[in-house]
Amino acid sequence: MAREKKRRSNGRRSPLAAAALIGAGLLITGGIYAGASAAIAATDAQTSASTELSIEDGQKLFQSNCATCHGLDLQGTDAGPSLYGVGELSVEFQLATGRMPLQMQGPQAPQKPPQFTQPQIDAMAAYVQSEAPGPTFPADEILDGEGDVAHGAELFRVNCAMCHNVSAAGGALTEGKYAPALTSTSALHIYAAMVTGPQNMPVFGDMNLSDEDKRDIISALLYQQESVSVGGFTLGNLGPVSEGLFVWIFGIGGLVAITVWITAKSN
């Protein structure tokens, strides 16, 4: 009988080779996909930021990001209030300050970096205004900061200081709520807050404060934002509590330290 010739294997393949090849292929494919997606997203973001969006674009953005809580027809749901009558001014305020979309349920919606570009915000505001009209943007004159600063400061002390602090540094309210600081708030958002009454803030209509009064308050706050503190370190402008705490810790503490040092040196 003829002997059966044994085939020689040129190399032994590892059982992990197939898994390694599959893993390498997945990594390469995933890297290419991620790079392409990032490039496309960056292009879309630049395009949307450089072009003015239409009301139809605002409707699509609203339905994708807001309708879950506020309803497809702005009627509201158990998770969010109705938007009938809020107007474009309120929508711009809530989105541009980052309060909406709401991150989590709590006593108050905190301010955070906005999740949309300004053209996207304007498009959603225009859509809400077209479907459920409400307060709109004011004339440029109201926001110019050229009003009566002294009269505006007096109106602020009478109507706003009990919550926002006389220096507009903000303050605590009940049940975990708070009045935010106004030390860097824009003129438009100051006006929007007075007109729309977000969170716990009351609405200041024309019967309470006229447009000229609102202009004076805005002028006073803008003047205060730009002014330099002549008293030096402000300690957060929180009043005698923070000032007394500073004196107690550093003043009395410094005297105690000096007394101990003198006593130790004499001994």
Give the arrangement of secondary structure elements.
Blueprint: H1 17-50, H2 55-65, H3 67-70, H4 87-96, H5 118-131, H6 149-159, H7 161-164, E1 171-172, E2 178-179, H8 187-196, H9 211-226, H10 240-266
Antiparallel strand pairs: 1-2
Helix pairs in contact: 2-5, 4-5, 6-9, 8-9
EC number: 7.1.1.8
Subunit structure: The cytochrome bc1 complex is composed of a cytochrome b (QcrB), the Rieske iron-sulfur protein (QcrA) and a diheme cytochrome c (QcrC) subunit.
Protein name: Cytochrome bc1 complex cytochrome c subunit
Class based on secondary structure composition and strand pairing: mainly alpha
CATH topology of the domain at 140-231: Cytochrome Bc1 Complex, Chain D, domain 2
Q: What is the string of SSEs from the N terminus onward?
A: HHHHHHHEEHHH
User: Main beta sheet, described?
Assistant: 2 strands, antiparallel
Q: Can you give the helix content as a percent range?
A: 40-55%
Which strand-content bin applies to the residues? under 5%
Rg: 30 Å
Q: What is the count of helical runs?
A: 10
Look at the structure and give the mean pLDDT. Answer: 85
Q: Compute the separation of the termini in Å.
A: 114 Å
- Globally, the shape reads flat
Strand adjacency order, main sheet: 1-2
The number of E-state strands comes to: 2
The low-confidence parts are none
User: Would you identify the CATH H-level superfamily of the domain at 140-231?
Assistant: Cytochrome c-like domain
